[in-house]
Amino acid sequence: MLLLWCFIGILSGVVFGLIPGAGPFLAMASLYSLLYYTDPVTILTFYIALIITCNYTNSVTAILYGIPGDPAAAITSRYGHKMLLDGDGHLAVSSNAISSTIGSIFAIGLFLFFLPDIILLFKFYNSTIQLGIILLAIILLAAMATQKLWKTISLFVLGGVLAKIGFDNLTHQTWGTFGIDYMTLGIPFSSMMIGLYILPEILKFTELEFNEQNRITKFGYSLRTLPSTLMGSFVGFWCGLVPGVTNILGSYMSAAFVKKDINKIAAAESASNSGALSSVLPLIILGIPIVSSEILVYYLIVGKGFSFDIDTVHKFKDVLYYIPVIVLTCLSLTWIGFNQLAKITSIYKRHKNLFSIVIVSLIIGMSCYIYPTKEWYIITLCVLSALGYIIRKWDTFPVLYGFFLTDLFWDNLMRVIVIYG
């Protein structure tokens, strides 16, 4: 059964990785209701297959059109498309595929090698350390934002306010309800996610313009990229463990260490895949998601009554055995099958508005299906979507972090105050 979910994850990664601006988050959001009925190990298996595949396939549009599928593919977009126009597209494609494979396998090796030390480190983990990590995540999120700081802070606060509205099961008190019965239910996570994050993101990538497509007519690989690949894998792994940094900074940092275009692609892609896998560790060990798609994984798994702690590492360890199957499949798809994937991208190019409508409709329909009070869901969705449309030019990712981290931050802050007060 897990092998089946691996291939579902790969298929989802192919489709959503080829759509610029989509990626793991939209894939998780689209299949959220389906994953809702599975177990935690299945959810994580699907997610691992998804993020690995997206990191391969988002480079297709990057190399063909110079449009990165996500921020981590920006290096490949810049240098890979240039190589394509210079007649070396086959080397850009092979460097992307092989370096991504090495980066994924390298991350598994580092994980297994350092696992005893990682577990030992987190045995000293407590509320004070968790509060520090959350603060670090907030600071890094604000520091790395590409928009004005006041926008990032405003969105984070907005997410926190929306998270606190409703009835608190611990204190048995309501907040921000203004005496309205519906508001005691709280703001549904899915309506906030769709209205304030998915809608603005989809509106952004429907405005993208594509250049003419070129085909890859031959195969080839340069062994001279191997040192850059190994360096990127190592740097990317450790960057992936830092909240707010993940595989994006690892990709940029690794590429900065080398000079040639093809070496920059090799370093960036290996770092991206290595960091994408290592970024799952804080979620598994600490229960702290550090990228937007992990927030959905967190809610799905916690909804099963599952709690994250040090022992969960061993429960999820079996997922590692499926990673070689995933990366070998992706290697074949993105190297040998590059031109076939390009056809899918060209279809999206012609019908991108239709694609966007279908994706949003699917997510709304499935989310509405699983939410018990549908009238309240529709009301909140309409209001937040209207707000999302107004701020569609902003980078609205901080609102997700604010929604998720507010309770976690507040609970740990109260514990620290009691301990040291």
Describe the protein in words.
This protein has a two-stranded antiparallel ribbon with strand order 1-2. It has helices at residues 2-18, 23-30, 32-35, 40-65, 74-85, 89-122, 127-143, 149-164, 189-205, 226-239, 246-256, 261-278, 281-286, 292-302, 312-315, 323-336, 338-350, 352-370, 374-390, 397-420, and strands spanning 166-168, 173-175. It is built from 20 helices and two strands. The protein is globular, with a radius of gyration of 21 Å. The mean pLDDT is 79. The chain is mostly helical. The chain has one domain (2-420). A hairpin with a 4-residue loop joins strand 1 and strand 2. Helix 4 (40-65) runs parallel beside helix 5 (74-85), helix 6 (89-122) packs parallel to helix 10 (226-239) and helix 6 (89-122) runs antiparallel to helix 16 (323-336).
Keywords:
421 residues; two-stranded antiparallel sheet; 20 helices
What is the typical, i.e. mean, pLDDT? 79
Largest sheet: 2 strands, antiparallel
Shape verdict: globular
Distance between the termini: 50 Å
How many separate domains? 1
Extract low-pLDDT stretches: none
**Spatial order of strands in the largest sheet:** 1-2
The proportion of residues forming helix, as a percent range, comes to: over 70%
**Taking Cα atoms only, what radius of gyration do you get, to the nearest Å?**
21 Å
* SS element count, helices: 20
Instruction: Work out the oligomeric state of the chains in this entry.
Output: single chain
The total of beta strands comes to 2
Task: Note the beta-strand portion.
Answer: under 5%
What is the N-to-C order of secondary-structure elements (H for helix, E for strand)? HHHHHHHHEEHHHHHHHHHHHH
Structural class: mainly alpha
